[in-house]
Structures are given as structure tokens and as C-alpha cells.
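In this supplementary section we document a worked example of the pipeline. Step one takes a protein sequence of length 135 as its only input; no multiple sequence alignment statistics are reported here. Step two produces a three-dimensional model, which step three serialises into C-alpha cells for compact storage. The input and output of this example are shown verbatim.
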Amino acid sequence: MFLSKNHKSKLHFFRCNVILLSISLLAIACGSRKVPPLVVSKFSDVNTLGLTKEKFMSVYGRPITKDIKTTGENLVEELYFKEIIDGIIITTRFKFVNDTLVEQTNHHIDFQTREIKRLERQIKANRRRAIIPTN
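The serialised model returned by step three reads:
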């Protein structure tokens, strides 16, 4: 196939541009690998004691459970919220006295969840290997 000098230079120009574009895209893709964001509790920004229970619940929703008692003339409510963060179950407790937030604590942190899930995956994989015949 015979191409004119003009067509050859256009073809060469096109190939060079494709190569440069490919290299640029590769460099961008390699350079812009994102580090996964840190996973944090939605309650990590609750730093204002004195918030009313009504305002708190309008922002964070209903608790999974709560404890209610009276201490003297004070109504004490403890609201419990659960979150799964990076495979770890965290229960956070918020204590309200007379509908005012007075305390926030991590009530329970279940670190075993991630390990249990890893072991369950490993058991399933081992079972699949045992079922698949090897020749």
C-alpha cells in the first residue's frame, strides 16, 4: 500500500499522539491512586455537651435501645446507637439528664467481628476446595 508523503506524516503524527496520550493516561492513573478514607463514627463530631435530646435525635435518628431511670428529681435517659466501622461493631451511649446531653461514651466495641468474618470466609473457601475434585 502506497501512501503519499502527506498521509505518512499525518499517520506518524496520529501514532505519536496516541502514544503520548496513552503514556499520559497511565501516568495519571498511577499517580492518582486514592488512599481509602479513614472510616470514622458518625458520632465523632458530637462534641457539644448540653445539646437537647430533641435536637440530637433530629440529627442522628432513633436509638436501637434506651435505658430510663430517675435519680432524685432528675430524669436520666441513656440512648444506645450501633455502627459497623471497618468490620468492627461499636455501640455508643449518650446520656441525657432532663433532656440535656451530659455524656457520650463508647459503651461496647466488638473487635472479634472482623476476625470471625475472615475465618468464615476461609472455612467457606476450604469447603469449596474440598468439594471440587482435583485430577
